[in-house]
Automatic annotation (TrEMBL):
Domain of life, source organism: Eukaryota
This protein's name: Sperm-associated antigen 7 homolog
Biased composition (Basic and acidic residues): 37-46, 134-152
Region Disordered: start-end pairs: 1-46, 119-160, 211-232
Gene that specifies this protein: SPAG7
Alphabetized InterPro entries for the sequence: R3H_dom (IPR001374), R3H_dom_sf (IPR036867), R3H_sperm-antigen (IPR034068), SPAG7 (IPR017330)
Classification via SMART domains: R3H (SM00393)
Amino acid sequence: MAELDLLGSILRAMEPPPARGRREARRAREQTAQLKKLQEEDKRQKVEFRKQMEKEVSGFIQDSSQTKKKFQPMNKVERSILHDVVEVAGLTSFSFGEDEDSRYVMIFKKEFAPSDEELETYRRGEEWDPQQAQEKRRLKELAEKQAEEEALRGPAVVSPNTDYKDKYSHLIGKVAAKDAAHTMEANKAYGCVPVANKRDTRSIEEAMNDIRAKKRLRQTEEETPAPPAKSS
């Protein structure tokens, strides 16, 4: 009897789990199957999207009138697929847009790759206008050239409309006369003679005549006897 009770205990321990455990296991299997189905659907959509991008890029390459192409905003995964398609096709691509919802892709043919100036225009959210850009470059070069010329000329000299000497001539004349009078008084007081007064303005001939006249006068005085002294 004891052996039967032991056998019964073993058999009960080997019984399947209760119904609750079976429901949880079934739910887990259903979730796994659903996740797998979603993954397959996502993979299928990516394949379809890639095929669509390959078709559009191929049409862009065959159209000789197109040098660039702008696509509608895409999510990060779609942009990644498009960049890969463009790279395989031998083209150039860039993403633009401030936020994730508005970011888009532009593709360019290699021979029409955008310049840094053009890329900067797209990054600012503006349309690229080659003629307008050329005009901006011309104005910029002109401004730089004018700045260089001004730097070479140096600071500008300001010329007044009237000469201050003419405007204040009456005052300058009075000051000059006063200074001249003051100089003359100083010369008299200290026995100074201005250099201008010391300068001999005679010609050489006039100076020689004066010297000869003085010499004759001195000889005449030496030859003339002195008058006799009067007796007292």
